[in-house]
Design a protein that fits this description.
mainly alpha; two-stranded antiparallel sheet; globular
Length: 163
Amino acid sequence: LDPLCPACRGFETRFSAHRAAAEVSRSVLLFPLDPDCNWNGREAVHPGACLVSEAILCADEDAEEVLRWAFERQEELRAAGADGGAESVGRLVRARFPALSDCIGTPAVEARLNRALRFAVANELPVLTPQVYVARTRLCDEDTDLGLDYVLARLLDRDRSGR
């Protein structure tokens, strides 16, 4: 997912309302659509998404809090990115999460984000957000939206039964 992606935020809203949300464990692969860190694209679809992604990684156990905040403030963050790029987004992130300031932009967190991007390339994941997998089965794009309730329940049932 890209923390500044409206479709990713929409998926998160739909997923959190799903009956299975509390039952599953999730892993997130950050894939910011921002060439500041993502060498898979030349155009900044979501300027500042690299910085927000780094903040999520820096937050460790509080990563979900940072992601939730980014989704809640997405319009403001996207506007800041469009107007002033990563620097403007960084001011907002650092104002809300000052404890992350020393970590954001460090070689260590940049390397962690780069490993996620390399994983996506090595596993030939499409350059598209959001993407959802259940036990190595990818939900088609339509099913992350309108078909989520139907398909997710069936895939989770299939995974539980070991089929």
